[in-house]
Amino acid sequence: MTELTSLQNHFLIAMPSLDDAYFSRSITYICEHNSEGAMGIVINQPSTMTLKELLEQTDKDVSYGDDTSEQIILAGGPVGQERGFVLHSGEGEWGSSLPLGPGIVVTTSKDILSAIGSKSGPEHALIALGYAGWEAGQLEEEMQENAWLTVEADAEILFNTPIHKKWQAAVKKLGVDIWQLTPEIGHA
């Protein structure tokens, strides 16, 4: 058996041929990948919820600025949609945080939401509800079936690229014309 190469801190880019309703043209930031499976957060699928609505559900007494209240919450994946995840730049101390890559941290505690709402949170943050999960070997199998391409994560794409341009920006980082790639599996 070959040794598993972890895709943590990589983008998982949906191939154009992937026509799954949830993952079509998606880009997923991989938070964890090991022999037990993989977990990631889709970073280019907006939900119908704003930060204001999320804050009102999680903390009735929180204050927030008008400019932050309309921030869109991402649909991070089809699993655990009641669970929140904040991908953010590395500054700050929060209740439950895990460093994932250079300058990229995931936090799951509510304390960061109030800080973001009141503009005392990290400089860059994406808030998502739900995540994408794969059982042991499932992601590797999907990659062999040419459903996904991977590229090392890029904080510029993660935090500073508009939602509707993230997939194209990640594809460009691959340095190939994705439209020339075939969904067929080739064997030498």
Q: What attributes does this structure have?
A:
10-stranded mixed sheet; VC0467-like; 188 residues; alpha+beta; single chain; 34% strand
Mean pLDDT: 88
Structural class: alpha+beta
Strand content: 25-35%
* Percent of residues in helices: 10-25%
Q: Can you tell me the residue ranges where pLDDT is under 50 for at least 5 consecutive residues?
A: none
Q: Based on DSSP secondary structure assignment, what is the total number of beta strands? A: 10
Per CATH, the architecture is 3-Layer(aba) Sandwich
According to CATH, the homologous superfamily is VC0467-like
What is the total number of structural domains? 1
Taken in chain order, the helices and strands follow as EEEEHHEEEEHEHEHH
Which CATH class applies here? Answer: Alpha Beta
What's the N-to-C terminus distance? Answer: 20 Å
3D shape: globular
Rounded Rg: 17 Å
**CATH topology (level 3) name:** VC0467-like
Characterization of this structure:
There is one protein chain. With 188 residues, the protein is an alpha+beta fold. It is built from six helices and ten strands; from the N terminus they run E-E-E-E-H-H-E-E-E-E-H-E-H-E-H-H. It has a single domain (10-180), classed as VC0467-like, CATH 3.40.1740.10. Strands 1, 2, 3, 4, 5, 6, 7, 8, 9 and 10 form a ten-stranded mixed β-sheet that branches. It starts with 9 loop residues before the first strand and ends in a 14-residue tail after the last helix. The protein is globular, with a radius of gyration of 17 Å.
